[in-house]
Amino acid sequence: MKHDDMKMHDMHDMDHDHGDMMMHGGHMMHMGNLKQKFWVSLVATIPIIILSPFMGIKLPFQTTFPGSDWLVLLLATFLFFYGGAPFLKRCKERIGREEPSDDDVDCMGITVSYGYSLYAFIANHFLATQTHVMDFFWELATLIVIMLLGHWIEMNAVMSAGSPMEKMAALLPGQAQVLVQDGQQHAVDLKDLQEGQTVLVAAGEKVPADGLVVNGQSQVNESLVTGEAKAVAKKTGDQVIGGTVNGDGTLTVKVTGTGESGYLAQVMKLIKQAQQEKSKVEGLADKVAKYLFYAALVAGIIAFISWFFLADLNTAFERMVTVFIIACPHALGLAIPLVVARSTAIAATNGLLIRNRQAIEVADQITMVLMDKTGTLTQGAFKVNAVQPTGEMSKTQLMAYMGALERHSSHPLATGILAYNDAEKITMSQAENVQTIQGIGLTGAIEGQTYQIVTADYLQEKQIAFDTAAFETLAAKGNSISYLNSRSNCLRDWSRKGVQLKPEALTFIKALKKRHIQPVMLTGDNQQVAEKVAQQLVGMTVQANLKPEDKEALVQDYQAKGEVVLMVGDGVNDAPSLTRADIGIAIGAGTDVAIDSADVILVKSNPNDIMHFLNLAHATSRKMTQNLWWGAGYNILAIPLAGGLFAAWGLILSPAIGAILMSLSTIVVAINAMTLKLKN
């Protein structure tokens, strides 16, 4: 996505147009051109195979005629400059600007093959040589064709690895049914859809954009977007995501997000950013590729000098060319990017948005998981189960004032108070200048008087008297207690909200302990509530009465003790600790995916998805290691074989066989990456 005003439909078109392009070695390769080059080169190679000897040996199916060697020269020259163009061009662009890579070995192999063959042709036809000089036109032609085929297969693998992202772009319909003032509806292209418009989503249709249901109820299938397998009930007031599929009901939706602001657009942006980043392992692969280039260069020169004295010039060139070909680290250049492309795409389709690829590599080292209580371990919705005025204010007035302030907050406690007022049909007052008291609550003006919603810890810190005995009794039962306080520091009233454990929380904690990862619950709530929750979670460690800065300090303390910390929070109040942790995971999403402080974002508020991330990261790291060995490890044996070190025992590789082995290693790397799966 290149422009902030690009619509989702345009983005889909762009992805479609560039769907046959791939970045390689920092340069864009066009898959259609590569495919064409392969087929044209293959056609040109067939006559060379028939007319040119293989390593000086005439095969049974081969033949010659007067002038056939000139035809071979012309076809080989065409192949070198046409079929070899992608490799030669990238090599030329890199000279003097970048460190050596697999492109340079490709270029070196075909250039030496063609250059020496051209010399052999001139020597045999124009120089008075005593013996026939063997050329490598057969090997050059087959090498270029095999390399083109290998690149084509690799590009197909890259496209397949990222295909879930293309599927996400294709989720959106082409048009939306917009409702106008007279109640009529008309079709509008998705790129022309604007925020604030109202659209009608009939049964079975795709939701065209992010929005708020203003009328109707239905079941919406969000599986392809959020990874949520079951249909989600939607009614008036609920949010829907563009690209999800409506069930049997009809929904009227007010559009809240299109283009860049839409959920799918943000998801795809995050995936692309993650896939384009370079991780430490990929940096290691680049370094190995550089050293492999130098190793191939040195080994090739040593092989040339050795065989020049042991045999002849032809054999020396043959061994050197074979070393250059077999050592091509092209598979190494794709070993990590292919796995990461596959991993981030799998993660996205399972409700895991990976913003920082480093998180995948660090995940296996995690020793401790710190998690915010509310929304991670406990239900995001709190229920008000008691209201107790302590002054002249009535229950209704107390809740009207608290609701007036909480209307300006998205915290789960606020949701509970607003739900209570809605159920009791309490008309809330108007609050002005409402501000957050970081880690404490809210403050604002109601009817000219300043009020605060605060915690017991705040009251103690400010030395404001309150009924501590009543607080201890209620808190011991697992209640979160909020106080409404006036500017004069005269304590007004309190309300309590019941805390309900998430059904998946216990399974999650047990899974962490099974992996020998220590779980720690962090909360701004009181100690009694925290311990009550911890008791239900098989006695996990608890840190209560914390402000955002306290959580960050705890992360630092644990890291100073040598722990590798994963922090789970809501991405807003927990931003400092999410940033400080080795891995920060923001839990809870829907359409709120632009959380800059987190490395990983969970689309669903299911703590078990953290285990899915850890499992996927483990599988990804394993595939990376395997691919590094497939991409470079085989050279430990292949380079000595190519150099003729074991020739005395009859073990030696021809340039063509070297090209096949080089391409096979690339294909194996691609197939291995594609087998990556998320095991729940």
What does this structure look like?
- The protein has 680 residues and is of the alpha+beta class.
- Among the domains are: 175-258, Distorted Sandwich (Calcium-transporting ATPase, cytoplasmic transduction domain A), CATH 2.70.150.10; 352-377 and 502-603, 3-Layer(aba) Sandwich (Rossmann fold), CATH 3.40.50; 379-500, Calcium-transporting ATPase, cytoplasmic domain N (3-Layer(aba) Sandwich).
- The strands form five sheets. The protein has a seven-stranded mixed sheet, sandwiched between helices.
- The longest helix is centred in the middle third of the chain and has 31 residues, at 280-310.
- It is elongated.
Major beta sheet, specifics?
A: 7 strands, mixed
Could you tell me the CATH topology label of the domain at 352-377 and 502-603.
Answer: Rossmann fold
Structural class: alpha+beta
Oligomeric state of this protein: single chain
| CATH class type of the domain at 352-377 and 502-603 | Alpha Beta
Query: Beta-strand percentage?
Result: 15-25%
The outline comes out as elongated
Strand order of the largest sheet: 12-24-23-22-13-20-21
Give the overall pLDDT as a whole number.
75
- Segments where pLDDT lies below 50 for 5+ residues? 1-31, 161-165, 589-594
Helix content: 40-55%
Rg result: 33 Å
CATH superfamily of the domain at 352-377 and 502-603: HAD superfamily/HAD-like
EC number: 7.2.2.8
InterPro entries: ATPase_P-typ_cyto_dom_N (IPR023299), ATPase_P-typ_P_site (IPR018303), ATPase_P-typ_TM_dom_sf (IPR023298), ATPase_P-typ_transduc_dom_A_sf (IPR008250), ATPase_P-type_domA (IPR059000), HAD-like_sf (IPR036412), HAD_sf (IPR023214), P-typ_ATPase_IB (IPR027256)
Membrane topology: Multi-pass membrane protein
Pfam families: E1-E2_ATPase, Hydrolase
